[in-house]
Structure formats: structure tokens, C-alpha cells
Amino acid sequence: MADPASLAAISGTLELVNKSVDLVRNLRKKGDNELTAAEMRNTLIDLLDDLVEVKSEFVSLKAVLLSKDEEIRGLKAKLEGKQEPKFDGSLYWKEGDETAFCPVCKENEGKLIHLNYWGGSQDYSPCWLCKVCRNEFKV
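Above: the chain sequence. Below: its structure as C-alpha cells.
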């Protein structure tokens, strides 16, 4: 959603454009025969003033859009960083996810495969098992 200042600037610019278009329409309707040189000159001066102001508003809007684009790129980079799993030296983990991902599948295939946790027994220590590549990772 656009901020109120941007919406106001856009609205003001559109009003200036509409006013300029109306001035040109009036010039066309009246034609050279009905307008005196002074009226024509004054109307053209008004039109030029409005167009200069429109140009200035568009420069301001362009700056706002560039700023918003930069902000969006920064937020996307942050989001991608949060979604990308982090490697702890043996397994991959995503923030907020308590199940590890297989490092072999991630590094070889680029696939994020959740590992299954096995609590172990008297003879075996707890570990994470990958159901895809069949590797096991000791805890």
C-alpha cells in the first residue's frame, strides 16, 4: 500500500495534468480567431507553468519510487536470508524449524529434505536419518 505522501503527490500531479489538458482543449475550441494575442500568450504561460510543475512532481515521484524499490530489494534480501537454511557444521537448519535437513541432499542436489530423528537404543546412539539418500548423522 502506498504511503499518504506518495498518494497525495500522485493526486496533485494528476490534477495538474488534467488542468493542462483542459487549457489545451480550450485553446483548440476557441481557435486563433477568437483569442487575442494577449489571451493566447497568458494561456500558454499558464500551460507552461503547469507543465514545469508536472515535470517537477514526476521527478519527486521518481525519487520516491527509487527509494521504495531499494526498500523492497532490502526486504527481499532479508526474507531470503531467513528462508535459507543455516549450516551448523553437520546439519542444515531453518529458523523456527526443529527438524534438521540433510546436508548431502542439500549440497549434492540442492534439495531440502527433512531428516527423521531416531532416539537410539542401548547399542546405538541417537541420530538423524535421511529417507532419500539413506545417510545417517550422529547427534
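The chain is about 60% helix and 10% strand.
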